[in-house]
Amino acid sequence: MKNALFRASLLTLLAVVLIVPEAMAGTDTVFNTLWTTLETYSKGFLGRVIALTFIIVGLAAGVARGSLMGFVTGVASGVGLFLGPDMISNIVSATLP
Length: 97
Known about the structure:
Oligomer: single chain
């Protein structure tokens, strides 16, 4: 019984793989405006204000707890917000030599 179920599952998987067309990753432009908008926000004035807010809140949390980890987390969050879109673009568009 288990062998028959395994064979049926394997045949179904094979049929799905053969029937489904190739993925055309990277050719769709539906989300380009969304990406451009979010990238502009994070690198522009709004991103800088949010990054500064991360740093101030982290500094306040660090002072309240008597530790620098809140400040470090705030700085890391601010840097991540500002540099995140560039890192994502470079990772996604990377090619092998």
